[in-house]
Amino acid sequence: MSEKLRGRQIEISWPDLGITVTADLDDRNPALADALWESLPYQSLQGHALIAGEHLYHVAPIPTLLHTPHSTRIPDRREAPNGTVFCSGLQHLGIKYGTLTEPMPATPVGQIRAADMPALLEAGAEIWDAVYSTKKQIHVEVRRAGEQGGHRIPRLRATDTDADRLIADISAETEKIWLTPPAELDGLHQGVIPSQAGNFGTVLPTLLFVNGETRPLGYASYGGLVRAAVQDMPMASLAHMARLLVGVPAEFLGYCGLEKLWAFTQRFLDVVDRLDRDDFYAVTSQMALYINCLGGWNLHLYPWETGDHLRQQGATAGA
């Protein structure tokens, strides 16, 4: 049984639902727990797993989650107790509230108190309905237990003038869209596509491609570049990998409507060859947070109910 981490508790609250639960942080991954604790309070758009089962997650505004090492990894999160709280290298805070189907390793940082499990189950059901059907935007607030809530987006710094200006612009845009749908994504989901991407007036294929490109760009490409910078990959190799990984998907997403993302990417690639390690880390970390925020909105806005008539064999329609 894990020890509580110096008596630290966090409250995870969904004001839109009138539900708050308390979690005890423990000693299984103290570096991750420290990163979470030091970032509090914050707010985010609450999401729900779409193919993995009864699991809640949201993008946490904690750049260091991308590279903070873990001490303990559960080989198969399906076996974790319900109510386990995780911090992920995908920049997520997650909570297992029921049955999971995906045998994925995970890094726990705490546990929801047993008395709060009924409330957590209620929140899970409401959030699933919002993500899958109603599109109600449910915000989550994570704060130190007994303390005031709040919200802030970290703004990193660079010594290179152009890089620092780029970081400021990315940070400002991230702040703007963190709790409000990005105008370009909102328009896209309403069928407003200036480039007319989508054959013969269709919209759903474009939405699918945007979702499919945005998530790996944030999770794998920028997350990988941040980790490579921290792990001392040579600077020439970092710049080369950045050019290989981020330009093509960002240009495609710009064509589909994410013009700000493409503009930020071009500015990054314009300066990447002259950045030192700290500046490279700062720009890629800020971009990762921005793109992961876009990814969260994609997952919320996408019309998943469009495929409600397609069900796995043996599944019931109401499942």
TrEMBL record:
Q: What is this protein called?
A: Cucumopine synthase C-terminal helical bundle domain-containing protein
Q: What taxonomic ancestry is recorded?
A: Bacteria, Bacillati, Actinomycetota, Actinomycetes, Kitasatosporales
Pfam family name, one: Cucumopine_C
Q: Cucumopine synthase C-terminal helical bundle domain: which residues?
A: 164-301
